Amino acid sequence: MSTNNPIPRPGSAPKVGATARPARPAQRPTSGPATAGAAAAKRPAPKTPPALVKPAPKAKARRARLLVSKVDPWSVLKMAFLLSVALGIVTVIAAIVLWSVLVTMGLFETVNSFVNEIQGKEGGVPFDLLAIVSLGQVASFSTIVAVVNVVLLTTLSVLSAVLYNISATLVGGIGVTLTDD
């Protein structure tokens, strides 16, 4: 045997300055019918799919009872102004569409002929409803109504918010119950 072997033997002391290496396990022969059966026995079993997990039962919906004790008048002013402007635009468009539908139906001509028939030939100048209710006049009138509505609705909304705040200090406010789905 050689003395240069760095692996110490059992029962012998290691040499000074020599590094000890771990002993290698003995390798088994990999051929033969006995080893094939042993290798098959050591293989891990095929993985089975994990069992389906039941979902957690639905928790009861939480409820919170709250009081609306104050409404900010500035936020009410902004929201009321925005909504009343939208309503004003709808008013003007609805008036123009209604006028167009009435003209298309021939209502103004029918009214003109009816009034002229009642008036007779001695009445002088024939009656013309379209001179009184023209598209420009309808659009102008509906725009004026829309602007007045914007001012009134915004003012009334802010006034309502202030009155609500005053009454909520006396009564406590409106109770609201909130739940989560």
Description:
This protein is mainly α and 181 residues long. The chain has a domain at 64-179. 54% of the residues lie in helices and 7% in strands. It has helices spanning 33-42, 73-105, 107-119, 129-132, 135-171, and strands at residues 63-68, 174-179. The protein has a two-stranded antiparallel ribbon with strand order 1-2. Helix 2 packs antiparallel against helix 5 (135-171). The model has no long low-confidence stretch (mean pLDDT 81).
Outline:
The protein has 181 residues and is mainly alpha-helical. Helices cover 54% and strands 7% of the residues. It has a domain at 64-179.
SSE series: HEHHHHE
Q: Can you give the helix content as a percent range? A: 40-55%
**Low-pLDDT ranges:** none
Structural class: mainly alpha
Strands side by side in the biggest sheet: 1-2
What attributes does this structure have?
elongated, two-stranded antiparallel ribbon, 7% strand, 54% helix, mainly alpha, 181 residues, 5 helices
Structural topology:
Layout: H1 33-42, E1 63-68, H2 73-105, H3 107-119, H4 129-132, H5 135-171, E2 174-179
Antiparallel strand pairs: 1-2
Helix pairs in contact: 2-5
